[in-house]
Amino acid sequence: MHLAKQYSLTRSQSFVSAQRDQTKPSEFPRKIWQTSKTSAAGLEDHDRKAIQSWMKLNHKHRYEIITQHSGESFVRDRFSDRHDILEVFTDLQDPILRADFIRYLVLLGDGGVYSDMDTVALMPIEDWIPPIYRSQTNMVIGIEYDKLNGARWLDWTLDLQFCTWTLLTKPGHPLMEMAVDRVMARLRRLALKQGTTISGIKASFKEVLDTTGPAMFTEVIIDGLSRSTGANFSHLNLTGLRNARLVSDVLILPINAFGSGQSHSNSGSPDEENALVQHTFAGSWKSNHDFNGDQQSIIELADKKTEEEMKREALKTQVEEEQKKQATEKQDAEGKGVDASSIA
């Protein structure tokens, strides 16, 4: 049976009851997953060095590379009772959408750590969770981007985004199942929008982010935590995060944990003690997924102001113009010897 149902999660249960009733494994599986176009024998030297960083710091962990072919074997084995998952995954041909999808599936099925091939481990996985949170944590995620008080960068469509290049979770986590279900729904929607089948999808940069990537995953986390906490949870609860925060059973790490060395979001140096993983951004997927088609919409989104902001700015401009007009009339009146108090 799929996942041995370690979380006792049935598809008819609500997210909240699933989290309350789940029987959690006592420890995170000691397993490291990475994806690659080729098997280990075909890897380049920089990839081998990155892999060694994971293996050197985590001697007790098993390590596995998932390729396009082994990924399909994994899905057929672990999700034999989820024909919807098997059908969508086998139909999906875009290698980046497929690589995104398989990371959620291996973590849902077996749990452990997933990390992109272009990441370097800086600290042992066993040290990622502060002792005070270890007994309560079933998923660990990190912030990739935080707009803070500045303007939103063009690469992002959200004000705060979680990274998906590194994830740690126990098997069968309800949030991971939500991510899998949402990926399938958005793939079907994208295929319908393009007038094609899932196998024929040609995704742009933004469509990757929104369909299988970190924008989709961030929305899942925000929605899921809102349900589990019973509060209107949003990015505002996390912006400017400097220390690890446990929300429900999800440990959220500040940006420097998985996102050190970036030129935004107050990201710090990989040399700092709170840096756990360094992402080298060596992936080439963006060049294969057109950004130009999305650029105008992203710019518009980045520059967009709420209706209230526009009203306030319009009123402010109107007041300033009226004040300038009155000042000019006052100066003209004084120059002509007219009683300025009569002008208002």
Pairing-aware structural class of the strands and helices? alpha/beta
| Rg, alpha carbons | 25 Å
The SSE string, one letter per element, is: HEHEHHHEEEEEHHHEEHEHH
Mean pLDDT figure: 82
Q: Which ranges are low-confidence, i.e. pLDDT below 50, for 5 or more consecutive residues?
A: 1-21, 291-312, 338-344
Count of alpha/pi helices: 11
Shape: globular
Task: Report helical residue fraction.
Answer: 40-55%
Would you count the extended β strands for me? 10
Measure the end-to-end span: 81 Å
Q: How does the major sheet shape up?
A: 8 strands, mixed
Percent of residues in beta strands = 5-15%
Give an overview of the whole structure.
The chain is an alpha/beta fold and 344 residues long. Helices cover 42% and strands 12% of the residues. It has 11 helices and 10 strands. The strands form 2 sheets. Strands 1, 2, 3, 5, 6, 7, 8 and 9 form an 8-stranded mixed beta sheet that branches. Strands 4-10 form a two-stranded antiparallel sheet. Strand 8 and strand 9 form a beta hairpin.
